[in-house]
Amino acid sequence: MNKELSLQYSAKGKKQKKIFFQAIEAVKVNFLDATDLEITCCIGVSLATAGDRNGGRQLRAETPNQDE
Predict the structure, then answer these.
(1) Which residues does residue 18 pair with via DSSP β-bridges, in sequence order?
(2) Which domain of life is it from (predicted)?
(3) Using an 8 Å Cβ cutoff, are 19 and 11 in contact?
(4) Backbone dihedral region of 64: left (phi > 0), alpha (psi from -120 to 50 degrees) or beta?
(5) Contact 10, 20 (CB under 8 A)
(6) CA 49, 55, 13 angle in degrees (round to 5)?
């Protein structure tokens, strides 16, 4: 999944994003022993850190904080 698509989804639908629940069933095909909670946690971390991909983290570090 690319960065732009990942930024549109979250594991729980927070920040008015779409919920990415279809992935749980797809992951279970290859990881039969994985629980829904384990899968959701891994997907959630991946989606939550999508903004850091493709130079996003570096760009954020270089941009001055507007709150200060």
Answers:
(1) 9
(2) Eukaryota
(3) yes
(4) beta
(5) yes
(6) 25
| pLDDT tens figures, 22-66 | 777 888 899 999 998 998 888 888 888 887 887 777 777 777 776
- State pLDDT tens for residues 7-22: 787 776 777 777 777 7
Torsion angle defined by CA atoms of residues 62, 63, 66 and 68, in that order, rounded to the nearest 10 degrees: 20
The full DSSP string for 2-68 is: -HHHHTTEESS-GGGPEE--HHHHHHHHH-TT--HHHHHHHHHHHHHTGGGGGGHHHHHHHSPPTT-
